[in-house]
Amino acid sequence: MSRKSAGAKSPETDSTQEMASPTSMPLSETVASGTGSGPRKPLLNPSHTMGALPTYVTNVGASVALPMYESRALVSDPTSNQRSQRTSISKSASVTSGALSEISGATIVNSSVHSGTHWFFSLLATAQGKEQESSVSYTGKPLPVAMRYEATAVDEITLEATQLVDVKTVYRDGWAVGLNLAAHKYGFFPM
Predict the structure, then answer these.
(1) What is the DSSP letter of 95?
(2) Where is this region: Disordered (predicted)?
């Protein structure tokens, strides 16, 4: 089926369809099947997004149009040792594995670092009245590790699930510094 102008009738459905450009597509109409012909299939569930609809990235692979968020990045080297180059994916806008299989050679880095303020930092900063600070101290009980984290820089510590961490300082971007009580190592780790 070739592209029709806005308001033209489609012979397959005999109803009026508007063919929108990728930049004006609703979130539920992001991936075209095959070579760009046929019905559009949803890539993301629009109920999982927050705020205004994002702008779209086009020409990523032949048939994918991914929404672009400030905290989302496609990178080819997820093992970078530079903490400042790490990017994360907003949990409210996760991409399905089926869509990733259509993008050859691309990897999505997924860590707890966000471009905005981390929720745990917000919780502590609000309680301490330090919302404008870049870091806050934590004096509570040691926190259990929820999932394994492998250190990728010399100033970071490796954490295993269920270990306890004595958190000393929490930073706005979601990183913290503290002591791994099981390994007796002090360093940075993502919250």
Answers:
(1) P
(2) 1-47
Q: What is the CATH number of domain 119-190?
A: 2.30.30.40
Return the H-helix or E-strand segment holding 127: helix 119-128
Give the span between the Cα atoms of 143 and 182, in whole angstroms. Answer: 12
Residues 85 and 145: their CA atoms lie apart, in Å, by 24
User: Tens place of pLDDT for every residue, the chain, 191 residues?
Assistant: 444 444 444 444 444 444 444 444 444 443 443 444 444 433 333 444 344 434 444 444 433 343 433 333 334 344 444 444 343 433 333 333 444 444 445 444 455 544 688 888 888 988 889 988 999 999 999 999 999 999 999 999 999 999 999 999 999 999 999 999 999 999 999 98
CB 81 within 8 A of CB 42: no
Helix/strand number for the chain, H first, E second: 2, 11
Domain extent listing, the chain: 22-108, 119-190
Whole-model pTM: value is 0.42
